[in-house]
Amino acid sequence: MPATADRVERLLERVGRVLAPPAVPSRRFPPPRRGATLRKHDVAVIWLHWFNAVVWALELLTGGALIVTGRYHIAPAWFQELVVAVFGSRAHLLRFHVVVGVLWVAGMLPYAVFGFRRYVLGFFRNLRLDADDLVWLWRKARSLVSPSLPLPPQGAYNAGQKLFGWVVVAATLVIIATGFVTAFHLGPQWLVAWCVPLHFVAVAAVFAALFVHIYMAAFMPNERPAFFSMFTGRVDARYAYHHHAKWYHEVLDDCLAGRRTCDAPAPEGADADQTPRS
Amino acid sequence: MPRYGMVIDLDRCVGCGACVLACETEWQTPPDTRRRDWVTEIPAQGVFPNVERAVYVGLCNHCDRPTCLSACPTGATYQDDAGRVLVDEALCIGCGYCVHACPYQARFFHPVKQKVDKCTFCAPLVDRGIAPACTRTCIADARIFGDLEDPASDVHRLVYLEGAARLETPQVSIGPNVYYRGSPAKLELILRHHPPDPDRTGPPPAGSLWERVLRPAMFAVLGLTFLGQAAAFFSQLVQGEKFGRFEPPPDEPDDAVPEPLPPPRPEEQDHAGHR
Amino acid sequence: MKRSPTLSRRGFLQLSAATAAAAAVPRSAAADPLRRRGRAGDREAALVPSICEMCFWKCGIRGKVVDGRLVRIEGNPDHPLSRGRLCARGNAGIDLLYDPDRLRGPLERVGPRGQGRFRPISWDEALARVGAEFRRVIDTYGPDALAFFGHGTSAKYPLSMMEHLGSRTVSSASFFQCRGPREAAYTITFGMTPGSPERVDLGQARAIVLLGTHLGENAHVSQVAHLADGLARGATLVVVDPRYSVVASKADWWLPIRPGTDTALLLAWIHLVIERKLYDEEYVVRYATGFERLAEHVRPFDARWAEAQTGIAASAIEATAELFGATRPAVALHPGRQTAWYGNDTQRARAVAILTALLGAWGRPGGLFYPSPLQLGACPCDPKDDPAQPLCPEDQYHFRQEGIPTHCIIENSLADPPPVRAWLVWGQNLLQSAPYPQRTAEALKKLDFVCVVDILPTEITQYADIVLPESTYLERYDGVFAERNAQQPFLALRQPVVPPVHDTRDGFAITRGILEAVGRSDCLPCASIEEFIGLQLAKTDISFEELRRKGIVEAPGWPFPEEPKLYTDSGRIEIYSQALAEKQFPPLPVYVPPERNPPGMLRLIAGRTPYHSFARSLNNRRLDAHVDDNPVFVNDEQGRAMGLVDGDRVELENQDQVRSGPAVVRLTPGLRPGIAYTWHGFGGRSPALRRGFNRGWSDNTLTTRFAVDPETGASGMRVNFVRILRDGVPLEAPELEPPPTAVFRDRKREAAAPPPAPAAATPAATAPPPRPPADSAPPKGGC
Questions:
Q1: Chain B residue closest to A197 (CA)?
Q2: What angle do CA C758, C764, C766 make, to 5 degrees?
């Protein structure tokens, strides 16, 4: 292991500890038995995810076909024509794009209003990058040359997912803000003029990340439990033990302490057999 | 198909602004914004008594090669078969790029409609056989509107036989179809004081940045991402399901399994011990 | 391929000229579909023909009405004079109708007079109060104690009421502050006034002469069009104006005259025309009288003399005189309109009239034409001839018309004891139109009773005891207009385009209401304006219904009779006026040199901007958005010598130490030194006009001096001088007298020359590449 890489790693860890010291569970639990599952997402989150997926598909489709001028266009002319043919006219396309955008915000608003603690704060807590995450990212990069390098334990989301999360959160806010400013002309002319490319950039950022997101979920075998969890809400406990060790321990710990309702509350001093089961 | 044009007769125009008010009231543009149509006084220039003054009567020139067209991201601005440059309000998002892209500053943001607005050569009226509002109201008959292609029309005669001039400079020559006839001295004054702005032939900085930097950058990022994913997928194909596969360790705790969690850190040990 | 219609204005004109020539009175029924429909935006709109009153020019309008709301006013193409044209103000008329500051109902003053505090009252209460006050004044002090100031078309009803009540104390601003001198001069010379619109045949003239007549800037629609037509047909234009006005910029000859010396120029022209035998001898011998005395009278006034007086080069005076001789009788010498300038204005207007006569231009194409004998039935209450002169000295103002001079009434309201006790002010804003408004305000405060009839809460309404709101021209009938002063005479109807928006009444109804309240309604046989119109039309074969539908009905006219009939005492053109001589006035025009500028001061001259009808339209939101300030224009050389910079904010102080509000300086080479020029009507002082309040500065408050024209009593207002103050420090205007000069531009040759070639470095106009016509037919021969 080259010394410089280690020094960088130590530096990253120190920086990371300033950001957030890695959460350490109060006790260590043994790996779960085969077949055990843990609840990761509730129905609301699953719904939100697929609602987003559909909106994104529609908005990318219509938005891409809306920009027609040679200077700025994204999609080829045939694609624009195709979409216009489906919608009847570009005016319909624009209207649809705006209406779906507004419905998108309307769909997400109840989460922010009625489930602020649970969904917004909870989500952001999960996105917090700590020292382990920085080291994880560094080692992930290094693993391209030395694949055997062990990775630090991860929380509910690994550092890569957290980065994706941040991109999505930031871009979503930008997209909504710029979209509303443009569609309803909220603000002076210069602001609107800048909002259009900002909208575009934010979408592009998510779009690039979306490539990875979809690829990981749909093609990467070792992420398959995560993929299925977006349908069932549950994740293989053994997968969690290995890929999201900190989260695994946190869940168990919380269950024991009664901070979290579990399928079968684990008694004090629980061992592997008393891990929550499906 | 006709090709519409207008001739402003500077010798007849008295700068009374009737055309502007007719336009304003016909198309209900708000009084306090820029307008579709304007009359700008160029005060007397020269040395008493050898002076000259002129009135710059301006409107959209419905240019042959309009610069506003390509500045519009959504294609709301278009040119119809009669050569008129029009805005499809249903498509306009009010970004104002075209406003910046008009060297004659003939476009403005309509604060009520929240769209870009401009002279249409009164297209809805002309298509019903009624002359434009400004032309009908002109108290000195200084505006002549008609079909440039029609050899019997006055505009054709004034433009092609009598040499009515375009408001063009060597820097900005985009084929305006509003022509000016009359005293050369007045014409020269107008050109000197209100030449087409060479800095206003394209979108504003936001649009230029988008066009020149953001769009290529987006394609680059998307391309790279796509390539990376393609490489990963290819390697998956070659290596089979082994690549990055999740292999659960044996059922019972095993020392061979890498320790997923580091030991509790010293400062947290006490706390852990208490539990 | 279907050829698209040519929509040029000229094409339309040719077409309508053809129809006008072919059609007798009235037009064929086919041209008048029963109901005219138009569109406003995407909606069907009713088109109601009527007549504009944003100024007094009476252009034809068509109101587009959707669901009872006026959405747009456009020109009425059937109107023989305006032909669908409308000026900026006419187009903006809709914003008078829906002006949020309009008077919405009768008001009664609360609090001290002039403070503008009112309470709304009912029409019945208001009229009862007015009637009671008028009756009291008449009964106590006699009918002449009740004074009337009127302006606008509806002022004819109260004028007739005044006559009926026995009061001769009436005054019309449009005479005494505006047209008076020329009306008198032309009546003296030709037996009739030049009319309004002036019957000048600009369209057929070969030479057009404008003396200070800022045609174009006045936006007198049909006249501007006729001028443009005349110029396009090759007329030579001579503009006499110290300012390079819009029309001066179209002139072949610009004579930047020293203010107030026009009569000298005219006398020199007359001198030259006679001396060089340029006049129409046959015409003069046949129709005129007193030519020999004139020839004798003008002998000393040669071009050299005039050069010294006017600052115009003698050679230019001679050349223009030669021009008149070469182009007569088609010389359109415009009589002018606002001719109350320096207090010797009838004499100047007489010189114009005499020169017209010498050139044989009266009653000839290209000169001045004759009115139509078009007559309407009169209401028995119609004003008859001018009442006798009650309040001014008997030996004054013999040639006044339309009442007695404004200042007579004002002074008689301030005398002790005042012979005038109550005022009825009708559509006339004396505080912005008449000179010395400070004095007017004093009179207003002293009066027993003031009733103001107006549309907007103008300055003078603030002094009213009772305010009666009149409907706008878009909400009322105004009787039938018989337009006699057009080569194609016609009847026109002003009718309501929409019902009254507020609790307002038309002028006829208000007059009737007052008469009833006074208890003297016996003179009015008709109960309403509609009945009155029926009476007017009784003599014609046109029904009210037909006129309502069409708005316009054309009538025959004989603008250029074989034998011009002259309605003077002698039955001839009175070059030498016996009537003037009898009243001890100069029977032949005399020149009085103007007062010199006091050292360091500039002569205040007010003109106008085409966007406003003076103070009347200052509150119009659309017009205000275009012009909301009146700069003070100063000659650039003189201004620089004073240390002024273009755009400086200054104040003006007149010879009586009255100061204006802040004004923005515009330095221009297009103005003779020695003049401070501005647009009249600004500086609104009525806070009830929220938009127009304090817009610009008021030239009128600086007009504390006026020179009374002895023949007519008109008040010449160009006799005030101002000092320019910056930061309260007076700036001395150096005396700057340019050498005798005149500007000649051969516009015809200029126009024939090709446009300037495009230069690489400087922007230049480029002619478009010649395109072959779409059809293969060769293009029709050039211009």
A1: B210
A2: 65
